[in-house]
Specification:
This protein is mostly helical and about 700 residues long. The chain has a domain of about 220 residues: Orthogonal Bundle (MetI-like fold), CATH 1.10.3720.10. About 80% of the residues lie in helices and about 0% in strands. It is built from 31 helices and no strands. It is globular, with a radius of gyration of 28 Å.
Length: about 700
Amino acid sequence: MRLHNLNRGFFHWLAVIAITLACISIEGEWKWLSEYPNAFIAPFSDWLNVIMDWTVNNCGSFFMGISWLLEWPIWAVQKVLNWLPWSVSVFLFSAVAYAASGWRLAIFTLSATIYMVVIGYWEESMNSLSLVAISVPLAILIGFVIGVWGFYSDRAERVIMPSLDLFQTVPAFAYLLPILLLFGFGTVVGLIASVLYSFPPMVRNTIIGLRSVAPEVIESGLMSGATPSQLFWQVRVPSCRRQILLGVNQATMASLSMVIIASIIGGTSDIGWEVLTTIRKAQFGESLLVGMVIALMAMIIDRITFGLAQRSGIYDPNQQGLFERYRLLLIAALGGAVLFVLAQIFSVLVDWPREMVWSPGRAMNDGLAYLIINYHAQIDAVKTFAFFYVMLPIKIGLQGAVSPFTWGFALTPYHKAIYTLAMAGFSLWLGLRGKNMAGVLVMLFAVFIYFGLTNIPWPCVILIYGVIGWKVGGRNLGLGTMLGFGFMAVTGNWAEAMLSIYLCGIAAIISFIFGTSVGIWAAHNDRVSAFVRPINDTMQTMPLFVILIPFVMVFKIGEFTGLLAIIAYAFVPAIRYAEHGLRNLPETVIEAANMMGATKNQLLWRVKIPLALPVMMLGLNQTIMYAIAMLVIAALVGTNGLEQIVYIGLSDGNFGIGIIAGLGMAIIAIIADRTTQAWSRTRREQLGLDASL
């Protein structure tokens, strides 16, 4: 172990830690270090409210006219879907599923749609589908046009890409208020909210697809004498059709995820409204059964659109004749017509009898009640342990969390000296062994866990995160990180931002560790992979409100309940990315390790995981994004960060404070996104892998 193993970056961090400790020691005298001065808070929210009031007063009639026009297509689709007998619709959906991906998807679609009929929510399902049927084409059209614009104009792309980040990271509740003020209550408001949330994936995939067209293909089109219009529509677009269809898939899924939000402001008799109704009555079983409808709809549409995207580039030489080409369409039309005629004879094929409706909701409620009553002591023990020994130390630090009431003793100078020497010695030992990054992480952990995230002076937090951004992604990321955190201080939302980061950070770390562990297991066991896949699909498509219900009923209102709900939603990406990264490693590397006599443990920890780590870090990226998305919903159960301010702005009709808090959450998400992606890209380059993946 030698001093030359300590690189310059290690000493940079020593300086940052020294500055932080110095600021903590003098914050009692300089109060502005602990609380951002009110005199320097910029009234951005007031300015935004003035702009919104002027827009509503001067342009309100124009937006209401748009709202009136958009009501008609929604009404028309609802009428058509509800006019068709359920038997005909189920058959047609199954036929489309077969055309997209074969018998397995057709059987799954048949079972899922019959489930919607049997539990008595077919009409509500069709009302929700009608909203998706209008919002998705609008999102696709808008996304395609903007994507083409961004492809042809570098200047436009520099504006489009950060705008997409805002649309996808600002909580939906933050921009519900301006939509409500401009368009009024009703189904159209939900439609517009769905479009705003779902068009960004289409833009991204359009730009990626158009840029992925091989130069040889373009040259071939030019040599054939194609005009610019022909080159675009007959060469570029067909060549990237699969990527564009994947954008359609993602836009559809994003639109479905807005069904509940749309119901809050639309008030229509759809599945989202039924979920909200059962949630308000604290009916766990019923809300889960109804929530499964949305999850099943999302799975069906996801697999159909993905299947169509995968088959889009496949050429089948056997389908040359007219009948072979349109065989499935003719069968679907004939089968639908036969079922329609039969439905006129047998009423059960039109309206499912109410006496035949099946619902195990009451039994599920009784089961949950039994669990709560009989395991009350164990539930309280888990909640108490997590709060006092995990959450509270991270929030307010060991100096505030350790007390005779919580830990059974108080910190003495002796304890503090041991803690300081142990952490400093461990960090230095790691640095001397050449593990500088690990040593830095130990130092940062020691400071944060002792003083608490919410108690560290705000300039020091900005400095620490800024240096992290600089070390990981360069000067621009470091400066952008500092400006982003500075925005939260200048707008007066610093304390709330730290509360959001604290809760979201704990959830993201736990979700990533748990999800990655399961993903590693699934990558080496096909049975585990097959078992986990439908669970992942269900958790990702289940309405966020439904995920809250069991945790609220078991653990009551509080931060711990919000933490569990966030973990339940955010662990899925970590599983998927870990499994994907490990299953797609270069075979040559694995064979070389086996030939060298590596054991299974050595192969996993010294070869596979280091190579798959960049992909796993992208899983961390998505885990953080999912955690932030769920954090807004968790505000309903007692969290007090930026997400709570978003709700306050919505309930009070204060556009300014709601959108400023929403922008703060978006900034946190964007910083996390840029940092993890930069690290993953750097790591890929170091390993000689394709950095574009």
